[in-house]
């Protein structure tokens, strides 16, 4: 797959230098760099996801405790387009 | 990269109510996707906001006095999503393509324009579609767009 990316002239020169030094195509150097960065940020992202999920869980819990629906109600999200019809009934 | 549909966001914020089995299944999958891999768009956030602030109270008979609590929770949720997920939007090209898709499915299995925009964007950027809407996944399948099937 070919995608155009705009990079600075000195970044391109550095990429060229690394590729020549390693005797690898430039695309392979980019693949390796992206792979290394992905690995580096994976741990941080895992922690951020855990924190985010905890925050949203707390928010969802607070919402369910303060905004109650009639007992026995089940929220059905299998067809929300159908649910938007309730807005017409409202007006 | 997963393009997130409105029903997934709704299932997340309403997860502490008793929800249907499919929503729970999709939410479980969604909760494991890293934040930067979640793509959300302006139009999906708009549809989500309208559902929670207007459809949800009316459809599920919530007291009118609870509007403020809903709006506050919405604000926190939207702000978190905007600052942690990857944002994308429908370009002119995406919108024109969406219009063609809207027409294409009109006589087969009609979908809304938001859904058409979602399909168009997923196709353009090769995103994996995450939705529990079976009509939408049927269209995605026809267009050879990758989607999560649970």
From TrEMBL, chain A:
Top-rank lineage group of the source organism: Bacteria
* Name of the protein this chain belongs to: Ribbon-helix-helix protein CopG domain-containing protein
Q: Which organism is it from?
A: Candidatus Gottesmanbacteria bacterium RIFCSPHIGHO2_02_FULL_39_11
What taxonomic ancestry is recorded? Answer: Bacteria, Candidatus Gottesmaniibacteriota
From TrEMBL, chain B:
Determine the domain of life of the protein's source. Bacteria
Q: Which residues form the signal peptide?
A: none
Q: Please provide an example of a Pfam family that matches this protein in its UniProt record.
A: PIN
Domain PIN spans what residues? 2-137
Q: What is this protein called?
A: PIN domain-containing protein
Q: What is the originating organism of this protein?
A: Candidatus Gottesmanbacteria bacterium RIFCSPHIGHO2_02_FULL_39_11
Q: What is the lineage of its organism?
A: Bacteria, Candidatus Gottesmaniibacteriota
